[in-house]
Design a protein that fits this description.
The chain is an all-alpha fold. The protein is rod-shaped and about 90 Å long. The protein has helices at residues 3-30, 55-69. The protein has a domain at 1-31. 0% of the residues are buried. Helix content is 61%, strand content 0%.
């Protein structure tokens, strides 16, 4: 094999590798995405709601939190 044949063979191998990698990438992109874990969002310390919260709302929230703790 002379140099020109080796370069041609190498080009063919590189092209085949690119096709295989593109196929693998396409296969990965077509797979369903994994679901993201649930994230708990907490307001910053000292944050105050813009609307005043009534005592009955606070009582209702406290009761709801107690129910959920069971």
């Amino acid at each position: 094999m002379d140099d020109s044949e080796l370069f041609c063979f190498q080009d063919e191998l590189e092209a085949e590798l690119e096709e295989l990698e593109a196929g693998e990438l396409e296969e990965q992109l077509l797979q369903p995405a994994a679901t993201a874990p649930a994230v708990s969002v907490q307001p910053p310390a000292g944050w105050q709601p813009t609307l005043p919260v009534t005592t009955s709302e606070v009582d209702e929230l406290t009761a709801l939190q107690a129910e959920m703790a069971l």
